[in-house]
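User: Sequence recovery, please. Input:
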């Protein structure tokens, strides 16, 4: 196949005509004289033919080689970019469209990025045994802390300054507040100050049904408004009150009965870090997307509430009628982002979100992965808190500015 611009030069038809016999004889007789006079005769005709063919061949080569066309070598298995070759006159430009390198993340800390798509995960099957112990998917894998030897958080409450793995509380211990009975607790090793998740007792589900939970979230003018009635949206709640379960009430005499209570929270949609962390008080420190408020890790006495007190198999219990969580029930960690990171499970009072138990790659988080407030900066997600199965469970302090 000829390249564009190549030209075939054809010799005139007359060149290929053979002289007749008489003319050829006459020309041969005059050959010596013609040669002497500079005429070619038959030899001259042959010479002309050869010269014409040679000229045509040279012209064809020159026509094909003009234009200085480029030859592009494409290396296999390389990322490519859009390449435009500047053509010489008479040659059309060539565009090679190929995938470009992904854009570099240019988001700044605390600048909310576009929402990251989340995927729902299969519901976790929560099962309670006949002896009131509980199975746990989170505690049954090889990641994260050893759930048979979780540290009791009693000695990790501070009122002086924030510290990694501590609860920086606005309220000091109150030994006169109601709580559990130490001598009846069988799942705490008081000698080494650890507790066993698998041996802890939990209130089962029963006939108690306080009503339908609600959760409404709106964002207007950079303000996130959340309205709830403080009952679980998924309907998962234990059989309160505990009066029908003497084995549990002898450990924890909590007489509370959850009831519908209206709450309205307004947070900044663009939270910012404060100049220094602030302490977390008793009561509501945030709210889950399941429509139930979050308390910090301590009970009224300043002790580890989850380790010591009876909560139901779905992770909550009442303070009088106000149902709440001291940790994030693992069934609420029900969304994952594209990189395996947990989705948002709720919001804390400084406006920063709290995510579930998993970081990038689906790896369970621990205190070692987080700062003194139980959070961290993470790419386009910005600053956020994480749930863990070890004290302080949700937050250690407020990193952001409280309204």
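Assistant: Recovered sequence (403 residues):
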């Amino acid at each position: 196949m000829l390249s564009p611009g190549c030209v075939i030069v054809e010799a005139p038809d007359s060149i290929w005509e053979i002289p007749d016999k008489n003319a050829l004889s006459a020309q041969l007789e005059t050959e010596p004289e013609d040669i002497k006079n500079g005429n070619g005769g038959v030899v001259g005709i042959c010479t002309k033919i050869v010269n014409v063919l040679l000229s045509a061949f040279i012209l064809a080569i020159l026509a094909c080689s003009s234009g200085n066309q480029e030859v592009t070598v494409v290396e296999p298995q390389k990322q490519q970019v859009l390449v435009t070759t500047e053509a010489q006159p008479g040659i059309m430009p060539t565009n090679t469209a190929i995938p470009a390198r992904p854009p570099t993340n240019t988001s700044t800390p605390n600048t909310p990025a576009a929402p990251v798509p989340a995927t729902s995960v299969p519901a976790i099957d929560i099962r309670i045994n006949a002896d009131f112990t509980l199975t746990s998917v989170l505690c049954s894998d090889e990641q994260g802390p050893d759930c048979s030897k979780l540290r009791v958080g009693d000695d990790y409450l501070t009122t002086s300054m924030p510290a990694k793995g501590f609860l920086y509380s606005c309220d000091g211990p109150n030994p006169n507040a109601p709580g559990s009975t130490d001598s009846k607790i069988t799942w705490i090793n008081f000698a080494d100050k650890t507790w066993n998740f698998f041996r802890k007792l939990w209130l089962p589900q029963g006939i108690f049904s306080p009503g339908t939970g609600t959760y409404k979230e709106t964002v207007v003018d950079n303000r996130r408004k959340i309205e709830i009635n403080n009952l679980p949206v998924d309907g998962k709640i234990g059989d309160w009150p505990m009066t029908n379960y003497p084995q549990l009430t002898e450990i924890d005499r909590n007489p509370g009965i959850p009831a519908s209570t209206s709450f309205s929270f307004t947070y900044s949609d663009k939270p910012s870090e404060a100049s220094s962390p602030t302490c977390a008080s008793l009561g509501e420190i945030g709210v889950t997307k399941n429509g139930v408020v979050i308390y910090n890790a301590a009970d009224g006495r300043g002790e580890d509430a989850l380790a010591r007190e009876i909560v139901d198999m779905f992770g909550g219990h009442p303070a009088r009628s106000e149902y709440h969580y001291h940790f994030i029930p693992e069934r609420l960690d029900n969304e994952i982002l594209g990189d395996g990171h947990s989705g948002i499970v709720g919001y804390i009072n400084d406006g920063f979100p709290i995510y579930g138990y998993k970081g990038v790659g689906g790896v369970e988080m621990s205190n070692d992965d987080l700062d003194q407030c139980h959070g961290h900066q993470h790419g386009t997600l910005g600053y956020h808190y994480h749930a863990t199965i070890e004290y302080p469970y949700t937050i250690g302090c407020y990193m952001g500015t409280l309204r």
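The first strand starts at residue 83 and ends at 85.
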